[in-house]
Design a protein that fits this description.
The protein has 14 helices and no strands. It is an all-alpha fold. The radius of gyration is 19 Å and the shape is globular. About 5% of the residues have low confidence.
Length: about 300
């Protein structure tokens, strides 16, 4: 999944500023479309399970570039991108976020291809709680007792799953950690979200194109070799990556931080439902205890956020 970075433990001041503007209908609909898109994404990516993961990832990067550039042209923000590209510090920072997001995409694709979508849902449920933990550690943001309790409850749920399975839920933690640090690095990137995403995929595209060229030379490239249907699906991976990010980036401008914090649970909930009821992954044993613990932690975190905004 490719969620836009969640805010790290929004401060009272930031929440107050956002609340003054209120939620707009357009912002809500755009963000809702993005989260529903992300929630249904496993259904789409499952259609390319027969294609090697690295090639799918390369196509996801490469075909995102024209979509992202088109959006910037329509919005008239190409000048921002041109200014960013000639700044070495900006490019270096975007290189870090590009690396982190590519790791996240790769792990997410692996969870789908290996039939472990439920672990991906767990990772994205934990993500906002991990983000506020990072905010406390790296940004010295003060967490309330309720927020610390939510983080501890999520940690206990992970410990329970680890004890039951005899191993760490590696995929869930990889998604959580890669996206949490991506959000942290993205926060420091002094460029708009649309321009930032475009810069990231531009930086990744030479590597994607080089890998696809290497596959072609070896005769292992599946693009074009397995039929026009697969070609369309692989090209569509770029659309499936860029469009929801752009929808979210523009929708979030018209939403309060509290609203965004609550809406971010839509995608992992849909992913969980898809994993259990469509893909038939077992939801049993410790998962029936751990997931409610995560949900309780999210309710606690959300209630505290709402209370703070009202205060």
């Amino acid at each position: 999944m490719t969620q836009a970075p969640t805010t790290l433990a929004p401060t009272i001041q930031a929440s107050t500023i956002r609340a003054q503007g209120g939620d707009t209908r357009q912002g809500f609909l755009l963000a809702l479309a993005a989260y529903l898109f992300w929630g249904a994404l496993p259904l789409y990516l499952r259609q390319v399970n027969h294609i090697a993961l690295p090639e799918v990832l390369a196509h996801r990067v490469f075909w995102s570039v024209p979509i992202a550039l088109l959006v910037l042209i329509v919005l008239g923000r190409t000048a921002d991108l041109r200014r960013a590209i000639v700044q070495p510090r900006m490019v270096a920072m975007a290189g870090v976020t590009a690396l982190l997001v590519s790791v996240n995409w790769g792990v997410y694709l692996y969870s789908i291809q290996s039939g472990r979508v439920l672990e991906a849902a767990l990772g994205y449920y934990i993500n906002p709680l991990f983000s506020i933990f990072l905010g406390a550690v790296f940004l010295h943001e003060r967490l309330s007792p309720a927020q610390w309790s939510a983080v501890a409850l999520a940690g206990a749920a992970v410990a329970l799953l680890t004890w039951d399975a005899g191993r760490l839920p590696v995929l869930s933690l990889a998604l959580t950690i890669s996206w949490g640090f991506y959000a942290l690095a993205k926060r420091a990137l002094p460029i708009g979200p649309n321009q930032g995403f475009t810069l990231e995929v531009i930086l990744l595209s030479p590597f994607a194109l080089a890998y696809l060229g290497w596959l072609a030379i070896r005769g292992d490239l599946q693009f074009g070799a397995t039929g026009i249907g697969d070609m369309g699906l692989l090209i569509g991976c770029g659309v499936a990556t860029a469009v929801p990010l752009m929808l979210y980036a523009n929708g979030a401008k018209g939403l309060r931080l509290t609203t965004i914090a609550l809406m971010q649970y839509i995608a992992p909930t849909f992913i969980l439902l898809v994993a259990v009821f469509i893909f038939g992954e077992p939801f049993e044993g410790a998962k029936r205890v751990a997931f409610p613990m995560i949900w309780a932690a999210l309710v606690l975190y959300s209630a505290d956020l709402i209370w703070r905004r009202r205060r």
